Every structure is written in C-alpha cells, then in structure tokens.
Amino acid sequence: MYIKDIFYSFQGEGPFIGYPQIFLRFYGCNIHCEYCDEPDFIHQRKPYTLEKVLDELHPLIQKNPHSISITGGEPLIQVAAIKELLPHIPVPAYLETNGTLPKHLEEVVDLFTYFSVDYKPGFDKEFADFMTILRGRPNVFVKWVLTRGFPVLDLKKMVQTVATVAPDVPFIIQPVTPFGGIKDRATIEDIERAYNFAHQKLADVRVIPQSHKLIGIK
Ligand code: SF4
C-alpha cells in the first residue's frame, strides 16, 4: 500500500471538528482540484507493508483517539489496502473521500463508522450513486469547498443534486483556504449566497472553515 503520512492530530473540518484522531493519509488521487493541499509528489509516495503500518499505528492508538481518519489524496483508490488494514485496527474508522468512486465504496462501506463525503462539481452521477449507497446510515455528512465567485448556475445545480439524493444529510459549506492556485478567500457575499441557496432545499446547512489551518497544525 502507498501511504503519504501517519500522525495524530485533531479533526479540523466538518461536524466532528475538534475530536482527536489518528490520520492515515493514503497517497494519490483520481481527480485534480485547484485548491488541493495534498498534491501528488512522487517522492512522498512511501510503500508500506501491513506490518509497518500497524507498527506505526500502535503508539498512536494508545492515545485513545476518537477515530482513525482514512484520508488522502483519495483513499478509495487503494481499496484493497483498506480491506486488508481496517479489520486490524481497534478504533472506529472515519472515511474522508471525494465521493467519486461509488463502486469502490461498495466494497468497504461496512468497515467504516463515519463518512465525510465531498461534493465535487462535475461528478454529479458518481456523487448520487455514492450517497445512494450511504442512504439510511448514521454519521454521514457532505462537505463542499466554496471558492470565491462560485458561479450561481453551478451553485443551483449542486444544491439540486444534493437535495435529490441527500436532503437530510448535514451539508457543510467550507470556505476555501487559499493554497496553490487559489489566492483569494471566498467573500462574505459568496458565503451568504451559497448558504441561502442551500438552506432553501437542504435540512441542515452549516458554514465551517478548516480550523487546523487557523491554529497551524496538520
Ligand atoms: S479530491 Fe481531495 S485529494 Fe483529490 S485533488 Fe481534490 S482536494 Fe486533492
């Protein structure tokens, strides 16, 4: 399996913000987002055996974390590794995914307790299939990164897609943190407009920024 990083920190995003977690960051992603803070650099791709991962996790599990975040990149591109690994970890698993690989999700869905699913513009069909698999499960939320000047037409389409497949699931608007190709924050007008559109059709809408970036931790 290819891992980028294993560490202990605090969840900085979404409704589980502030809980201590182990982060297991898989290498690589199947898509490309302009604001990505985990771009692929081949020298960061570390091959790990199952034993080596479990060795590194052992002292972190002793810290009694809330859960282990299986994140990336996009962790579901290494679905075989997830199947091999998770049955050995005695901590609830929290999936952080871009929501574009529903067939991969089907293979491992029962290994996870928590699901943080991104909505990525342009992957509406994949997102719909993904949320259909998760329908009726607890501990699921959708996260969408709001960039400055996000087009109104795209906003309407996005809200319609989410309202069709996941109207009751908490929907987190995460104003973008400037990084890489993104130089500007979303404005208060962007945030209010996005909130108001989403709030018309979705039951539980919140605006939550990336808190770990604010306090300077991983
Ligand atoms: S889906 Fe996530 S990991 Fe992949 S490019 Fe986008 S922000 Fe980066």
What are the secondary-structure elements, in order, as H or E?
EEEHEHEHEHEHEHEH
- How many alpha or pi helices? 7
Helix fraction, binned, reads: 25-40%
* Low-confidence runs of at least 5 consecutive residues: none
> What quaternary form is this?
single chain
Rg, please? 17 Å
What is the mean predicted local confidence, pLDDT? 94
Q: Which molecules other than protein and nucleic acid are bound?
A: iron/sulfur cluster
Strand order of the largest sheet: 3-1-2-4-5-6-7-8-9
Amino- and carboxy-terminal Cα gap: 22 Å
Number of E strands: 9
SSE layout:
Elements: E1 2-10, E2 20-26, E3 46-47, H1 50-61, E4 67-71, H2 79-85, E5 93-97, H3 102-108, E6 114-118, H4 124-134, E7 140-146, H5 152-165, E8 171-175, H6 188-201, E9 205-207, H7 211-215
Parallel strand pairs: 2-4, 4-5, 5-6, 6-7, 7-8, 8-9
Antiparallel strand pairs: 1-2, 1-3
The protein binds iron/sulfur cluster.
Structure description:
32% of the residues are buried. The protein is built from seven helices and nine strands, in the order E-E-E-H-E-H-E-H-E-H-E-H-E-H-E-H. The protein has a single domain, classed as Alpha-Beta Barrel (TIM Barrel), CATH 3.20.20. 32% of the residues lie in helices and 22% in strands. Helix 3 (102-108) links the parallel strand 5 and strand 6. It has helices spanning 50-61, 79-85, 102-108, 124-134, 152-165, 188-201, 211-215; strands spanning 2-10, 20-26, 46-47, 67-71, 93-97, 114-118, 140-146, 171-175, 205-207. Iron/sulfur cluster binds next to loops.
